[in-house]
Amino acid sequence: FMSDFESWTDSLPRCEKSGIGVVTNGKYVGGIMRQSHDFMHRCLNLSQNGVQFYGIFCAYNGDQRASKYVSNRLAYEIFFENPITVDMMPEQIQDALKTKFSTVAKLYNQDINELLLKRLLRKEESTEESRDAVEKINSKLRAGTTVLAAVIVEDHIYVINCGNSRMLALVVDNGNSDAWQLNEEHDLVNQDEVDRLHKAGVSTENLLRPTRGVGDCFRGLCFAENEEFIGANGPPVISTPDVYVYPVDEFHCSHLLICSDSVVKAIEEIGIEPGNINQFLLSELIREKEHSQTKSCISLAQAVLDSLTRQHRESAGQQYNSQHDDMSLVLASLGEIMGAAVANTQRATMTTTDATNSLSLEDTIDNDDTNDPQPYVDCYGFDNKPEAAEVRAELEKLFIKITKKNIAKDSIEEEREEPEEHSYL
After folding, report:
1. What would be one Pfam family of this protein (predicted)?
2. How much is the pLDDT for 3?
3. Measured between alpha carbons, how far is 373 from 298 in angstroms, rounded to an integer?
4. Quick one: which of 44, 112, 42 has its CA closest to 79?
């Protein structure tokens, strides 16, 4: 099931008015950044039939199975299983998104139940091989993912929040800029989450982030097996999302930004106070927009993360234990996306408001494919540059040189592969 939906998701049309920026995890060793594990995030920026879907799914506990499944299945639910359409009313869409997310979580938990049954059977065997098999199953059970997604239908933004990533609506203008946070992170800074945990009899003293997500079996569905939660009457980590809805006037908000919690953490580590993080992201975006030669969202998203990575590295100095996790950022141009909807419906009458209260697979996904980000070269507007002809000529020379070198290399390899009976010639 997972392998089918992985290729299916990749084939869906992308939103051209948005972009994804990524930076892989790294640890600074001797002044050099070294990647310590595969890239663990899944990022989407899809558009179909007037519906846009953006999301960041951050896998944790060392396995990507949860983020792969949830990202693909949620996209399927939104676009194909009783799909979200522009004809639906805002209340209908909000209710439908809650139901769809609940369906995704239940389907994933069904897969967990199958794993639990297999683990029980292997435990009864009491052999070295069965113990290894149990440990492999446990690693799959530990897999979890946070979810932060935005669905845009005409002049409304619907936010699906289950975890500790962050979403902002921004006015990106050097003379008139502002930022609104559209969700509350589910972590121990959130008083509502702390109160929920206390009511469940869970001590927050050593509890790690996040406090909501899909999967994470030993802090969720099977929390009773965990010695840390003896006496608790409810799971520390739940998969219940907050779903917000905002009417948006594109004349007030120009961009939508979604970033992983690791981006927020890196900003804190370079010395920015928590209350100034949103403004820091806004100022970084404005600066990159002012100085970049291209205004594409993919370039701006990547430029903001590259700048943050440089600042984080500089702040680390000679600290050999300094490191950062995978970082992801999705940026969408609300002005362009909402403009068409406003022109068609003439319904945009409210500005974005601050979010202070919520509204309340076993082997089929095991493969060797990684989700490592691919390098990119942004050639937007290249032909309009005065030096374009000169650069193109140099590239053609380089291409000819590389081609000749490869031909020579291939001929040498062919000679080496001649049958042994002809080696005396």
Report:
1. PP2C
2. 59
3. 13
4. 44
